[in-house]
Each structure stands twice: as C-alpha cells, then as structure tokens.
Amino acid sequence: MHRAAPSRRGFLLTTAGAVAALGATAAPAAAGPRPGPRPFGRYGSPAARRTPRTLYVDPHGRGDFTSVQAAVDAARGDGWTLVLAPGTYRETVSVDADRAGASWIGASRDARDVVIVFDNAAGTPKPDGSGTYGTSGSATTTVRADGFTARWITFANDWLRADHPGWTGTQAVALKAMGDRTAFHHCRFLGHQDTLYADSRDLGHFARQYYAHCHVEGDVDFVFGRATAVFEHCHFRTLLRTDLPGAPHGFVFAPSTAGANPRGYLVTHGSVGSEAPDGYYKLARPWVPSSDVTARPMLTVRETRLGAGIDAVAPYADMRETYPWQQQRFREYRNTGPGAAVTVPENRPQLTRAEAASHTREAYLGDWRPYTRHR
To answer: Residues 110, 146, 219, 221: which is the catalytic one?
Structure first.
C-alpha cells in the first residue's frame, strides 16, 4: 500500500481548505496557543467567570481544566458552557445524555485554533483486550445529550490507513452526534472514512441536527447516519486516495434514515470540492444497516455547487444490491457546477418546484430554529 506523505497528519489539522467555508482570513493558523494574556478572549476567565455555569479549558493550565473531558465530567446537569482556549486537545470526549443544553465555544472564534483530536479506528484493539472499538467506539467526540451546541471548534480523527496496512476496520469517526436539537456553527470535521456520524440515540428517536458554515472532509461515507440533519452553507471536501488505482475513491453521504422518519439529510446552499481527479467521487450511496433493514435512506441536495470531483453521469451507487439507491429517497434541486450536470436524467432524480417547498430547513427542523441565533 502506498504511504501517504509524512505531512498528511499535520495537514489534516491545519488544512487551509476550510478557510473559505469558515469565512476566515487567507493564512492558515496552526492549532496552538495564541500569544497574549487572554486565552479565553471575550469570554471571561476563571477569575472573571461569565456565569456560575461557565467552565474554562486550556491545555496550558490557565483555565479550570486542561482537558475537555475533565470539564465535561465536572459539568453535572444541564446548561453548562465550556470555553476552550486555543490548543490541541488529544483525547476522546463523551457527553452523556444527562448533560443537556451544553454549549462549547472556541475562544478565538476560529475553528482552526481549537482542535479536539484522537486516532482510534474501528479496528483498533481496546486496551483491556475485550476486542476492537468498532465504528461508534472509534469516535473522538461522542455527544448523546440533547440541546448541544458547538461553535468554532475542530473535531478530528487523524488515524491513517497508510500507518496500518492490511487493516479492515478503517472507519475512524471524528464526531458522533446523537442528540435532538444539536447544532454546530463554524466548525470543522476532519478525517477519512466515516468522519461525521450524524445519528440518533435509537430507531424511534428522530434527532434533529443543524450544521451551519461548517467544513467536512473525508473519503468513504464521510457524512453518514440516521439523523434529520440540515447542512446549510457547508463545504464538503473529498480527499485524494493514493491507495486506490482508480475511481471511485469514495462517497460523500451515506444516510441511513429510518423508514418512519419523513426527514433525512438536507444539504442547502453549500459546495462540494475535491483534491481527487475529476469524477472520482460519488455524491452518495444508501446505508441500510443490518440493525434496521427497514431503513429508507433520504438525502436532498439543493442549490449547492458540485465540483468536478463528483461523477456527474452516475453520482449515486448501491452499498448493497439488495437495497438499490433508486428505491431510496435521493433528490436534487437546482444544483450548479460540473458535478451537477444532468447527462443521464434517470441517474439524477430532481424535485419539482412544488416538492422543493417541503425540503427546507424550516420543514426539517420544525419548531426548533437554531438558524435565527449567532449568525
């Protein structure tokens, strides 16, 4: 297997590909402490706490805690805010369901400065010898709680195939979100396979999630799961794979929407770019997991620019022949760019104008309106 460039892991954390999507300045910033006496910026400090339920995290010891998980453990109950100083937090983090209404803020207001990263994969052996982590267990950050919000933070998994030739469990999740009313604003999600797991706690839980002005990158099924998720003004970036001789290199979306859920993934006013050759990526394939064979994956991509990396002739593929993509709920509407060209109409199902009226953030999120705050 061809080895990736030695700088790939560093590139994963500091890539400038997210700059346009995040509205940042042109120069990429390395993840690390910024100079100056105020690591928490405008958000106070342990000596000038914004509220009694605000905790400060700084890997260099200037806050209440040096790790994110330690702060999560201390924030018992609902409604806590964590302010994260610039730095790289190499750890796994888990937010249990009994910690609802949490808010995490990257203090510098630049997601490139605050990085939560680890390198477990599905095939990584557990330290206690009880087996491997599996896909869900590989997640760097896991959020089970409802009402979670994050702003200006990078969630990453820097496990690399090139470091583990011959492995089969190559899924490596950066973030798994399962709660209802979960929102991410101006965040980055970096990885390779299964980067962002937008899911729910169980089949009967229709979790609503909102991602605004975010950057997501990866290769195989790197946005996947059964949540009702709206991606607004987000940029998706497909990666070059030197371990494969040809197309396809991977798939951007792999929804696993429950059959009873009328809303799956909605991508609106975004863009899909690529570092791979033209046509080397599929836009999506349906995931019907063995745990829910009644799933009917749903994806709507509308008013989004699809770059040349997307295979315009055949943008969808099957994950299993038993569940062909044509029998799922895949639709497009008024997309632009070379990857959106309709050359084979039966391969690109389109919404009518009347149908598009029910595929909006308002219809998907209902009485929850996270898009009205913190623009």
So the answer is: 221
Q: Of 194, 199, 219, 311, which residue is the catalytic one?
A: 194
pLDDT tens-place string over residues 46-66:
999 999 999 999 999 999 999
pLDDT digits (tens, 9 = 90+) for 302-339: 999 999 999 999 999 999 999 999 999 999 999 999 99
Instruction: For residue 219, indicate whether it is catalytic.
Output: no
Q: The whole model's pTM is what? A: 0.92
SS3 string, the chain, reads: CCCCCCCHHHHHHHCHHHHHHHCCCCCCCCCCCCCCCCCCHHHCECCECCCCCEEEECCCCCCCECCHHHHHHHCCCCCCEEEECCEEEECCEEECCCCCCCEEEECCCCCCCEEEEECCCCCCECCCCCCECHHHHCCCEEECCCCCEEECCEEEECCCHHHCCCCCCCCCCCEEECCCCEEEECCEEECCCCCEEECCCCCCCCCEEEEECCEEEECCCCEEECCEEEEECCEEEECCCCCCCCCCCEEEEEECCCCCCCCCEEEECCEEEECCCCCCEEEECCCCCCCCCCCCCEEEEECCEECCCECCCCCECCCCCCCCHHHCEEEEECCECHHHCCCCHHHCCECCHHHHCCCCHHHHHCCCCHHHCCC
Q: Is 180 a catalytic residue?
A: no
